Amino acid sequence: MAVEYYLGTLDYLILFLILIISTAIGIKFKSIGKDTGKMREYFMAGKNMSMLPVIMSATSSMVSSVTTIGIPAESYKYGIQNWMLGVGIGVGMILAAYVFIPVYFQCGVCTVYEYLEMRFDKTTRYIISTMFIIQMILWNSSVLYTPVLAINAVTDLPIEISILVFGTICSIYCAIGGLKAVLWTDVFQTFLMFFTALILLIAGIVNAGGWTNVLDRSKEGGRLNAFNFQADFTTRYTFWNGLFQGMSFAVVAYGANQTGVQRLLSLSKTERAKSALLISAPLVSLLCVLSSLHGVILYAVYFMCDPILNNRETGLTKYDQIVPYFLISTFHSTPGLTGLSLSGIFSASLTTVSSVLNSLATITVVDFIHPIFQSLQRNENKSLMLAKGLSLAYGAICICIAFALTKAKSISQAGFLFNNTFDGPPLAIFTIGVLTKKGSGKSILFGLLVGISLTVWIGFSSLFSGYIEKPLPLSTNMCTTTLNLTYDYSPIEISNAIFSNATTVPSSQSETFILNKISYFWVRPISFVITFCCTYIAIFITGSKEDEIPPDSKYLSPVVRLWTKTDEVIDQQMENTNNFTLENFSAP
C-alpha cells in the first residue's frame, strides 16, 4: 500500500502567499512611472530598469521548472553527464552578450524580429515570428504542467483543476503588470529557486549518509559518467551534446529569442545589458549543474530501492515526480518547510510562464497587429487593452495544451524538444544576419524552410515514436517498508542487486528508425547546421559575390570589426542608439 504524504495548512498557506505576492507585484507596478498606460512602459519597462531585476530575471527565465524537476529526473536515470548543459549555457550567454545584444541596440528595435525585416525582408520576419509563437506556446505549456505534476505527487487535487488554477493566476498577474512586474517578481522568485536548490542539496546528502556514500553509490550505479566523449548521436547524454546543446540553447535564448532579449532591452544602454547578461551567466550555470547533481544525490538516497519501480509503496508513476516526492517525504513532519521547499519549483515555473506570456503579447502586437492596423499603433489605450487581452488568451491556450502533456513520459524530453525543434533554424538566420554581409530574402527563405521541415520531422517523430533509451540500472531488490534509510552493503551485494532487477527496454525498440534514436540534445545543433548550410548553398547559387549590406552597416555585430576596418563608424552608431526612444510606441 502506498505511503501517502499530505501538505499541511501552513504549507498550503505558503504556496498561496507566493501566488498572492506575485499578483500584488503586478498590481503595484501597474501604477508606477509617469509612462503608465503606455506601450513603452508595458512592453519595455520604460527603458530605464535598474540592473538587479534584469540580472535576476535573466537568471530565472532561463531556469524553468523543467530544469529543476526534469534534469534531476534525467540524471537520476542516466547519470551526471548532462551537467555539461550548464557549462555550455554559461559559454552561450557570453557569446550572446558580445555578438547579438549590441546589434539590437544599434538598430533600435523593440522585438528581435524587427531586426530580421531590416536585415532581410518582411517574409523572414513573419515566418520566424510565427515559429516563436508556436514554440513558446508549446514550451510554456510544458513549464505550466511541471509544478502541477509536483502537486499531484503529494496531494489528491486533480491535475486538471491544478493546471487551471495555476495557469489562470499566472496569466492575470502578467496581464496586469507588464514587463516591469515580471522583472521585479523574478527577483523574489529567483531567491526562492536558490533556496530550494540549496535545501535539496543539503537534505539529499544527509539522507544518503554523507558525501562519501553519494560518491560510492553513484559510482557503483554508473552515475558518475561525467566525461563521456562518445561521438554517438544516439547516446542520450555525452560531453559533446551537453556542451553544444547548452551553448546553442543560451545563444538562442539571449540572442535570437524575444523572451530573453526583451528583458535586456529594458536597460538604457548596451554596456548595461551586456553586464547584466555576463553577471547572470554563472548563476544560470550553477543552477543547471546543481540540478544535474540533485539527480545523482537522489539516486544515492533511493539506492537499490527505486521509488517508481516500488510504486506500491510510494504511489509514484513518473520519474519527474521524484524531486517533489523527496521534498515532501523528507520535510512533511516540519510544518511549513514542505511548502517553502516546494516554493522554488513553483517560482521556476512562474518566472518562465509570465515572461513568455509577456513576450507573446509583445510579438503579436508589434510584429503582426501594428504593421497591419497602423491606426491602432497610434492609439495607446486600445493597444494596451489588446496586449493585456492577448496575455490572458495565450494563457488560456497554454492551459489547454498542458492538459495533453499529462501523457508525456519525460517532461524534460518533451519540454526541450519543443524548444530544440524550433530554435535551430532561426539561430542560423540570425547568425548569418549579424556576422556576414550576405544573404537576401530568397536565399534566407530557402534555408529556413528546408531547416524547419527537416528538424520538425526529426524532432517530433522521435517524440512520438515511443523510443526511450535504456536507462542505467535501477533496482528494488533491497527495499524496506520505510524509504530514505541509509544502507551499508558489500560490493558483491550491490552488484548483484543492481543487475538482477535492472530496468529493460522492449526488444521491439531495437528496430526503431535511426533518426528517431537521435538524442534530443542534438536536435538544436543539427538543425542549426542544416539551416546554415542550406542557406549558404542558396546564397552561392543566387550570387555569392554580392554583399547585401556594406561593411559598416548597423546590422552587423561589433565583433565583425575584428576582421574589418569600421571601428569608428560602428562606435558612432552605438553612441547614437544608446538613447533608444522606442518610436514604435511613441504617441503621435
Order of helices and strands: HHHHHHHHHHHHHHHHHHHHHHH
Straight-line distance between termini: 69 Å
How would you describe the oligomerization state of the chains in this entry?
A: single chain
Estimated structural class: mainly alpha
Proportion of residues in β-strands: under 5%
Considering DSSP H and I runs of 4 or more, what fraction of the residues is helical? 55-70%
What would you call the shape? globular
SS element count, helices: 23
Q: Tell me the major beta sheet.
A: none
Low-pLDDT stretches: 33-37, 482-508
DSSP, total strands:
0
Radius of gyration: 24 Å
Q: Which whole number gives the mean pLDDT?
A: 80
Keywords:
588 residues; mainly alpha; 23 helices; 69% helix; globular
Task: Provide a descriptive summary of the structure in words.
69% of the residues lie in helices and 0% in strands. With 588 residues, it is mainly alpha-helical. α16 (337-372) crosses α18 (380-404). The termini are far apart. The relative contact order is 0.18. The model is unreliable at 33-37 and 482-508 (pLDDT under 50).
Set down the secondary structure blueprint.
Layout: H1 9-30, H2 39-44, H3 51-62, H4 65-78, H5 84-99, H6 101-107, H7 112-119, H8 122-154, H9 159-207, H10 211-220, H11 239-255, H12 258-264, H13 270-301, H14 311-314, H15 322-331, H16 337-372, H17 374-377, H18 380-404, H19 411-435, H20 441-464, H21 491-500, H22 523-543, H23 567-577
Helix pairs in contact: 1-9, 1-16, 3-9, 3-12, 3-13, 3-16, 4-8, 4-13, 4-16, 4-19, 5-11, 5-13, 6-23, 7-8, 8-9, 8-15, 8-16, 8-18, 8-19, 9-13, 9-16, 9-18, 10-13, 11-19, 12-16, 15-16, 16-18, 19-20, 19-22, 20-22
